[in-house]
């Protein structure tokens, strides 16, 4: 998510940002201590898929947002979160409910005081149902 945010904020390409994260940020020890470990393969896949599928992810996210607030107008941290989650939802590797749960938790880390986690949950539920309808049973009558 931070890599996607940096790509947009600094206008940097995916390859450059991934190299920076893999070389200087993930699992590297610095004066502040050791940076967190990460699954480098998963990290690269999420960034690559977010770039490859960005248009599809953004369109699905737009349909989950209020009409007056398209993805281009929302907070850039939330935009990066939706794109990272969308990258995981666009492929059937991880169950959608797991993706939603993990990204709601992540939103709580970035917005501990706000209502963003409920917003993220609602939007990602919509996106997941659009991108992976096969993962959701039909509603009972």
Automatic annotation (TrEMBL):
Q: Which SUPFAM superfamilies match?
A: NusB-like
List keywords of the entry alphabetically: RNA-binding, Transcription, Transcription antitermination, Transcription regulation
Which family does the entry's similarity section mention? Belongs to the NusB family.
The segment(s) forming the NusB/RsmB/TIM44 domain are 1-129
Q: Which GO terms describe its biological process?
A: DNA-templated transcription termination; transcription antitermination
Q: What is the lineage of its organism?
A: Bacteria, Pseudomonadati, Pseudomonadota, Alphaproteobacteria, Rhodobacterales
Which protein, by its recorded name, is this?
Transcription antitermination factor NusB
Q: Which Gene3D superfamilies match?
A: NusB-like (1.10.940.10)
Q: What residue range is the signal peptide? A: none
Q: Write out the GO MF terms.
A: RNA binding
């Amino acid at each position: 998510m931070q890599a996607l945010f940096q790509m947009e904020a600094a206008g940097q390409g995916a390859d450059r940002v991934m190299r920076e994260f893999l070389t200087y940020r993930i699992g590297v020890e610095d004066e502040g201590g050791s940076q967190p470990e990460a699954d480098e393969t998963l990290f690269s896949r999420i960034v690559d898929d977010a770039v490859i599928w960005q248009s599809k992810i953004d369109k699905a996210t737009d349909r989950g947002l209020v009409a007056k607030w398209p993805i281009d107008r929302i907070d850039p941290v939330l935009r990066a979160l939706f794109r990272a989650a969308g990258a995981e939802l666009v492929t059937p590797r991880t169950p959608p409910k797991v993706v939603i749960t993990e990204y709601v938790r992540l939103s709580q880390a970035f917005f501990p005081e706000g209502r963003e986690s409920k917003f993220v949950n609602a939007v990602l539920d919509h996106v997941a149902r659009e991108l992976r309808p096969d993962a959701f049973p039909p509603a009972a009558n």
